[in-house]
Amino acid sequence: MKLLKELFKIYSPSGNEKKMRKFIRWWLKNNVPEAITKTDDFGNIYVVKGEAENYPCLCAHLDQVQRTHSKDFEAIETKDYIFGFSRKNKRQEGLGADDKVGVWVNLKCLKKFDQCKAMFFVSEEVGCVGSGKCDMTFFDDCRFVIQCDRRNGDDLITTIGGWTNLCSPGFIKAIQPELFGYKEESGLITDVGELKERGLKVSAINLSCGYYEPHTDREFVIKSEVVNCLAFVEHIITTCTDVYPHEDDDYYFGRHGWGDDTWEEEYEEAYQCIECDLLNHPRLTTEQILNAYRGYFFSLKEADLRQIIEEIKNINFIDDDDDTGMRLLPNHETGMGEKNEGIEAAIL
Ligand SMILES: [Zn+2]
Q1: Which of 231, 100, 221, 102 is nearest to 176 (CA)?
Q2: 95 CA to middle of ligand 1, Å?
């Protein structure tokens, strides 16, 4: 967990990921000297290790949402958890485990496997900026793409927003999620969704990697789930040595739409998607949802999306938020209250 705790200490807000980039390049130079690293004009890092006809490929994002990260920030490790803390300010602070756990998984796998590709994206949290601009030819010789960028410990994300399929049924079967306790779920827009949107031709997934309360100062990780995620990824890399092609025909109705959807049709479509997201994740902030859907519907303006979100929140009695992503609502749907009490006890 030493490397993970080092990553947690690096403050890496969206648009200012320089320190994180520097650390990754330094770490690779010292620990995986044979890896070839390239950074593009946007700040995305591409890594290739070994020579192969095709590669397993991992991706993670470099940025974090939290706005507070004191100079004396510490990542405190207890038997089961890691959380961030400032002694001077006597408060818990977010780790940026979303997505530093993903960064950690990438680095561990680059070290372990002789042939592996990895990609580190800038500014996922403000609309998948890095994955929206990266060089897609990097993925031409990839077998599949795995991202570890999901809260909880057991979600295997195979569709985004309920309509963009990320991977083939054959790939889901091949990775044997049941061995590691993972179950299929639908997720929100993230880098692998953006890559599919841009025409990625192989299967992709997004995995839970053991962080909770992302984007808040109460963020923490459950160590056993972080470790289980890494074991699952290593299992996939070891056992899935084929190429797993996948192209989704259905997703084109959105951003690249057929162009003949009316405003009403798009409104209805957006309503259904956002309702599904909110019922599954009532603590999503309006900004997070807007980030996920911005630009997806030709004829909907941001005001339309805001109206949809507000209406769904009203109908379902979901508390509105202050849109900073920092507001801490009670842990009603996840039963996480108990776990947080553990953390509070550890702080005291
Ligand atoms: Zn993330």
Answers
A1: 231
A2: 12
Q: What's the 264 CA to ligand 1 centre distance in angstroms? A: 31
Could you report the per-residue pLDDT of 224-268, keeping only the tens digit for each?
999 999 999 999 999 999 999 998 655 444 444 445 678 888 888
Residue 136 DSSP code: G
Distance 338 CA to ligand 1 centre (A): 24
Q: Which residues make up the environment of ion ligand 1, defined by Cβ < 5 Å?
A: 98-99, 149
How many CB atoms neighbour CB 108 within 10 A?
17
Using the structure block, give the residue that is written with the tokens 């999620």. 177
Tell me the pTM.
0.75
227: nearest Cα among 117, 148, 345, 113: 148
Query: Could you tell me the distance, in angstroms and rounded to a whole number, from the CA of residue 149 to the centre of ligand 1?
Result: 5
How many angstroms is it from 80 CA to the middle of ligand 1?
A: 22
**CA separation for the pair 267, 278 (Å, rounded):** 16
Domains of the chain in start order, with CATH, are 2-239 (3.40.630.10), 254-348 (no CATH)
